[in-house]
Specification:
globular, membrane, 170 residues
């Protein structure tokens, strides 16, 4: 039941974000579509994590610790406390490292596992590195953002397809 609710919410947010992006003119630098698509992407990530085999592995506790550190880093950043950037960078890299170790420790890997590994590596290692240290133009930031969206939505699409085919999702 929760998967159906999450899926419907993700689809509605994605549709709202796409309609707002391509059909409605905006005067703001950051339209509401960015927020809707980001929220839909986050919920898709949560849905994939909720139904992942990672939850049953010994690495799940480490992943929880990494996400807790990430939340603390975000709170520090919001409150403008010192050390926020360091906590964010360390926690983001930690998520990527823990998932990489989990991925290589799995005995059986399928296409979805490889796609999830690429998504996790890009979102939690490459994207922060590129945005913070390498990229200095708006065009390059847009390209990195599009690559991230394509990876997340491609992975989510394959996840939904396999879940429906195996009758394990809904």
């Amino acid at each position: 039941m929760m998967n159906k609710f999450l899926f419907v919410l993700i689809v509605l947010l994605a549709i709202f974000g796409l309609v707002d992006t391509f059909l409605l003119p905006t005067n703001d630098d950051r339209p509401a579509s960015f927020d809707a698509l980001s929220l839909a992407q986050f919920l898709a990530f949560v849905m994939m994590l909720k139904n992942s085999a990672l939850r049953k592995s010994k690495f799940f506790r480490y992943m929880q610790l990494c996400f807790t550190a990430l939340i603390i880093g975000v709170l520090f950043k919001i409150l403008h406390l010192t050390g926020a950037d360091q906590i964010l960078v360390i926690s983001l890299f930690s998520v990527g490292v823990v998932y990489t170790i989990y991925f290589f420790s799995k005995s059986e890997k399928n296409t979805l596992d490889y796609l999830k590994a690429c998504m996790m590596f890009f979102l939690f290692v490459m994207k922060p590195l590129l945005e913070d240290f390498v990229i200095h133009s708006d065009t390059d930031v847009l390209i990195v953002m599009i690559i991230g969206h394509v990876l997340v939505w491609g992975t989510f699409g394959l996840f939904i397809y396999q879940g429906i085919r195996r009758r394990s999702l809904f």
